[in-house]
Design goal:
The protein has 325 residues and is α+β, with helices and mostly antiparallel strands. Helix content is 27%, strand content 20%. Among the domains are: 117 residues, Uridine Diphospho-n-acetylenolpyruvylglucosamine Reductase, domain 3, CATH 3.30.465; 101 residues, CO dehydrogenase flavoprotein, C-terminal domain (Enolase-like, domain 1, 2-Layer Sandwich), CATH 3.30.390.50. Bound molecules: flavin-adenine dinucleotide and iron/sulfur cluster.
């Protein structure tokens, strides 16, 4: 791992200006649990590394009187898990954070880093100059594609690896990005881009942009939320398929809410039609649930080795509904 310098800027503006330098490849290191691995394995090359650890005002969890919740980008995943307010009111976020990696990685890994982490595709992480690394072939398409996407794929077939992203999107979260000297806020759902739009990057971030904050709007008092993650191994692992749900029920009928999948698409998967059909669904009606789940996955377009994910998507919806009532 070679780079010229490791810098600690004292302001966001200085950090952003340093990262924006067009003549150098400069990277932001938050917890480093993903970035340092990418550098060590020579998957990316850096001229300089920048660490934000002296910017203390990016590390907080603030519950506002209005009921909204603000989380600084440098907040660790463990801090999310240990926050009593989040545990009581945002089960989906608590559950998602609790199932990330190992306790040690959760102590170091940050919320911003989790949302911006790079894909886990074994070709991308290996010695293959695939499309996403500037080459001209997606090796997964005709290769080992067991862990790849079944929704919204092509020409690259990665899945978004973040557990926090589906949970936060199901809560209608917004992300703030510091860019060109000012902060802008966008729905987290719009933060991710598909390979069909640009297969060289996963988010809208440009050189010099820094994620500063996540804002979760006030939620209904009777919110019921949950996160279910299916992994290949019992110990720490990335999701094969995961489902975040934030719902409001009237009796057993869904009156409001959203379902967001992880592990199935290059960005957290939110089906506009599926989420429209969710409203009015009667969770006592098994037949209606079965057809809802069936319809939700009908756009799946599996590769040669990952058709199992469509079955998992359907079953995870049914499981989540049975657990949430
Ligand atoms: C063994 C292992 C298992 C894992 N398992 C899981 C898992 O099950 N689920 C899961 O969700 N994740 C998992 N992860 C990923 C882990 O959660 C992330 O590595 C961690 O959250 C990233 O946080 P970090 O602060 O260390 O990020 P870094 O490694 O510091 O950064 C990651 C990327 O994000 C960029 N970045 C970081 N912060 C910002 C910011 N504020 N603004 C703009 N860009 C930024 C960096 O430049 C870098 O490209 C695993 C990682 C490892 C190594
Ligand atoms: S899925 Fe994407 S990252 Fe993986 S080999 Fe294909 S182009 Fe590369």
């Amino acid at each position: 791992m070679k780079f010229k310098s490791y810098v600690y800027p004292l302001s966001l503006s200085a950090a952003s200006a340093f990262l924006a330098n067009k003549n150098e490849l400069n990277f932001l290191n938050a917890g480093g649990t993903d970035l340092l691995g990418l550098l060590k394995e020579d998957i990316i090359k850096a001229d300089n590394i920048l660490n934000l650890k002296y910017l203390k005002d990016l590390k907080y969890i603030n519950q506002e009187p209005s009921g909204e919740l603000n989380i600084g980008a440098l907040t660790s995943i463990s801090e999310i898990i240990n926050n009593v307010f989040i545990k009581k009111n945002y089960n989906v976020l608590h559950q998602a954070a609790s199932q990330i990696a190992s306790p040690q990685l959760r102590n170091i890994g940050t919320v911003g880093g989790n949302l911006c982490q790079r894909p886990r595709c074994n070709y991308f992480r290996g010695d293959f100059n695939c499309l996403r690394k500037g080459g001209d072939t997606c090796f997964a398409f005709d290769g080992f594609n067991k862990y790849h996407c079944i929704m919204n794929g092509g020409p690259c077939f990665i899945v978004n690896p973040s557990d926090l992203a589906p949970a936060l999107i199901s809560l209608g979260a917004f992300v703030s990005v510091f860019s060109n000297g000012r902060e802008k806020e966008i729905p987290l759902q719009d933060f991710y881009i598909l390979p069909s739009a640009n297969y060289l990057k996963e988010t809208i971030l440009e050189k010099g942009d820094i994620v500063t904050k996540i804002r979760i709007p006030a939620q209904p008092r009777d919110l019921k939320s949950n996160y279910i993650k299916i992994k290949e191994r019992e110990t720490w692992d990335f999701a094969l398929v995961s489902l975040a749900a934030s719902l409001v029920l009237d009796g057993k009928k869904i009156t409001k809410g959203s379902l967001v999948f992880g592990g199935v698409a290059p960005a957290p998967y939110f089906s506009v039609k599926g989420n429209k059909d969710l409203i009015g669904l009667d969770l006592k009606n098994n037949k209606a649930i079965e057809s809802f789940a069936e319809a939700f996955v009908k756009d799946a377009n599996p590769l040669s080795m990952n058709g199992y994910k469509a079955i998992m998507m359907k079953n995870i919806i049914i499981k989540l509904f049975s657990e949430i009532i």
